[in-house]
Amino acid sequence: MSIKGRFERFTKNIRPTDEHIDEANRQVDYMVERLHGIVAGDGSFTLEKVLRAGSNAKHTSLRRTAENIFDVDLGAYYSGKGATKQKLDTLLHFTRDRLAEIYENVKSRDDFEVLSSAVRVKFRSGIKLNVDVAPIIRDDSLGLVNGGWIPRADGWRLTSVTAHNDFVRTRSARSGKVSGPVKFNRLVRMVKWWNNLRADLVQPSIFCDLVTAAAFENVGVTNEWRTSLIQVFGFLRKHQFLSPIVFSDCYDARKVKLPKDAVVVMDSVNPGNNVTGLWTDETRRAYLEQVQNAHDSMMYARSFELDGDEEGAVDRWCEVFGDEFRDLSEEDN
After folding, report:
1. Residues 6+ apart with CB under 8 A from 31
2. Which of 119, 182, 205, 289 makes the best surface tag, with the fewest CB within 10 Å?
3. 3-12+164-328: which CATH topology?
4. Residues 6+ apart with CB under 8 A from 293
5. Which residue has the higher pLDDT, 166 or 153?
6. Best CA proximity match to 60, nearest among 71, 44, 47
7. Segment 85-125, tens digit of pLDDT
8. Any idea what the Cα angle at residue 313 is, between residues 311 and 317, rounded to 5°?
9. Which CATH architecture has domain 16-159?
10. Mean pLDDT of the 204-231 span
């Protein structure tokens, strides 16, 4: 069994199964259809649209494991007299109550949780998933399709569901021009798998999107997984988060007033949001140590592979992706 073949199976098996995705889509379609009707019947607000967001929409979501909770993110765009960013907290509870009405005879109140930025609906039978519905108030001041205010733990934030999805989609299309299996969204998925094993240093999904994109802009992808991953981690190892990571997809990066934070990884949609705003220099050094360890293991794995020692290579890749790399890359998976 070749390492190349193992990676093809691993990259396939860390994504949600088609059955899981189809069932999640069925649950979401039912929820969205009913939510439109219930909000209209209440009359307090108008629900203009509900858009898919997050990893599921970007095709970077991971299979459900102890570390990776399979979820679906939705952006619910509200309008009406009371639909202002000052009332987003009200909209969170309004959304929770309307969602509870949809399942009033089949789900308990505990299955509906108001988070800082969304309402979580928990499904624990069948495929087991979370659906997070974030209320959004339309605002076109960023000049982006489907721009709007979304509640966050640190206040309200202006963003665009569509622009975030397009950030990954366009790079996935560009990576497809290189012969071979490596696609940007699948590369992000592998970085997320590694990131989710970092214990106290785990970063949000958007961070993985952005740093993988920074590496992609700098070194691109190769025609195989192993060297593409080595390039991503090699870029981060050299960059060391010492200079800002910023993109010009939705604004002119040259004109952005960058914050004076220890580490700057700017949201690709909102130039006022530094994803690593809470990082200290200690955080930077600790995360880079993890990056260096992963890069070292990758280089050893590559050396073992070239020497024909498959078991030695697998052991080193397990240092990167955990022991599940061995199981999920076996031929019977």
Report:
1. 99, 102, 121, 131, 133
2. 289
3. Poly(a)-polymerase, middle domain (1.10.1410)
4. 319
5. 166
6. 71
7. 677 778 899 999 999 999 998 899 899 999 988 999 998 77
8. 115
9. 2-Layer Sandwich (3.30)
10. 97
